[in-house]
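Pasting as-is:
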Amino acid sequence: MVYPSLLNAWKIFGNCDIIIYNKLNYLAENGLIGGITMQPYLNINGDSGVAGYEIGPDYIIVCFKNTYRLYRYSYRKVGKENVERMKILARNGDGLNSFINKYVKFLYD
């Protein structure tokens, strides 16, 4: 099954590899992420490695440019304060990549 929001995600992340699309489809089919509401990262300064993100109640999933992986950062692994900060940065389109590299880089689920 192809989810309509997956097609939107694919249009948004056309610069990402087809493997990302397949990964999104797999995660949605298996109920690991809800409905896929990937948003493009605004990248206000034009210097970010982040392509897009999905925000959930207690997590954020980040899609990086030039990689096939999706990284899920949850309250369980990085703490509520860090996830909530990442959500703000993602919505603002500035500082998310730097924050991840500085504070939570390897703490994904």
